[in-house]
Prior knowledge:
Elements (H helix, E strand, L loop, with lengths): L1 H15 L1 E9 L5 E4 L5 E2 L5 H13 L8 E4 L18 E4 H10 L3 H11 L1 H10 L11 H11 L10 H4 L12 E2 L1 H12 L6 H11 L18 E9 L2 E9 L5 E10 L7 H19 L1
Antiparallel strand pairs: 1-2, 1-9, 3-6, 4-5, 7-8, 8-9
Helix pairs in contact: 1-10, 2-4, 2-5, 2-9, 3-4
Amino acid sequence: xxxxxxxxxxxxxxxxxxxxxxxxxxxxxxxxxxxxxxxxxxxxxxxxxxxxxxxxxxxxxxxxxxxxxxxxxxxxxxxxxxxxxxxxxxxxxxxxxxxxxxxxxxxxxxxxxxxxxxxxxxxxxxxxxxxxxxxxxxxxxxxxxxxxxxxxxxxxxxxxxxxxxxxxxxxxxxxxxxxxxxxxxxxxxxxxxxxxxxxxxxxxxxxxxxxxxxxxxxxxxxxxxxxxxxxxxxxxxxxxxxxxxxxxxxxxxxxxxxxxxxxxxxxxxxxxxxxxxxxxxxxxxxxxx
Length: 289
């Protein structure tokens, strides 16, 4: 069954014009399906999962107060098209509300304010403590976007030029935030098993990870009112990823990470988005069979 699923997933990636990696696991039994699951890959905004998990772990250890307010000046915000990154006036939010924005609309400013609070070293220590040794944060979102600007010569339109895309540091897993599909899915499984933080902290962490507004990738593969999908997307030139947890009404729960890279450099590729949900559905159906 799993061999047939891998063949179907590979065909789906090919039809969508992408190369893909996938890891899906039954959170309770450990059964899994893997396809290129151990190859390090730039994580883009999927790495915000690591940040939010670390934030809640630190809070559960008493190191920070999630209700602590943060003053957010209007100037100097990280680049981005959503949330605080796109807003123009000063604001004040708690750490946990910043976490909500970082997940719900992938707010880069919110994420960087959290990074400023706990530090990338803390994020990496948390991942190591969880045994995720190939999941590494190298820079903040503002630093990541700075490399894009520099590598594109300051011209955003150049990010669709194949020659420019080929030299982007943000697409080199040895020089940017990175993980593997297996480790990313294992992080999610650990969160759902209360291994990152337990009790009220674990419940709130899972609730935050269920806030994502985007439904055109992973969730598109599970269009059912009684199936809950919690996920985090990540996008960079040619890269479209999502990792999340799919929960069925019968109690089945599955952690899935799908990382893709498109052959085309165009920004809008609906087939590349849709194949993430399709591949995840094939994998989960095979695990449930």
